Model the fold of this input.
Amino acid sequence: MAGLGDKGLRPAAHREIFEVLKERIVSLVYEPGEPLNEKELALEFKVSRTPVREALLRLSQMGLVEMRPRVGTFVTLIDLRQVIQAYEVKTNLEALAAQLASHRATQAQIEALFDIIERFDTYDLVRDYSACISEDQEFHRIVRSAAGNPLLIEMLEELNVKTARFLQSIHYVIDDYQWFRDSLYSMAVAIREGDESKARQTTEEHTRKFLSQMSSRFLPQESSLSFQNISDNT
Done:
């Protein structure tokens, strides 16, 4: 990796380091509980320790690392309660993003959604579980970006970090591939056609069913009941 401390990149070094470290934590390159050495990271990125410390502080604010004075910095454990809470909030916010995207998405963004759906057909769901998770996350990232609301995007991106790390940790494999693909396709079509009601409805249905399937398999019983209550009340 090129040094981020080179002339012209130094002012943005901490932001770039933050993004790299965040991706490593979400994808479990850095496992929960693993120590992060500030000095070693500074050497890797060819910067002083200041931008590394700034990046770690931001990760700490997001709940991805814990900085213990005179002890060190560690990747946080995955908190199931926070995962549950994140999914509860995401249910409505993802639907709102799709609703806004139905009027604001560019042609390039719409084409990117359909490209992802086509790529799903090439994956082995068990062998390529990680790629499937990443593609699903990218689909929703494009929808969020197309919504064009910076506050909404920021909120969903932070929530997504918590849920994506959880999915990677359990090696989540899609239960019903055909439903999953058709659901994403319906969302993309609604956005392409500018149908805000359909975009919101299909996204809500997609999220509720996905959460119901996942919670029944991997999350504590009380969380399954919580997700069921969300479904019943929407």
Observations:
- Residues 10-75 form a domain with the Arc Repressor Mutant, subunit A fold (CATH 1.10.10.10).
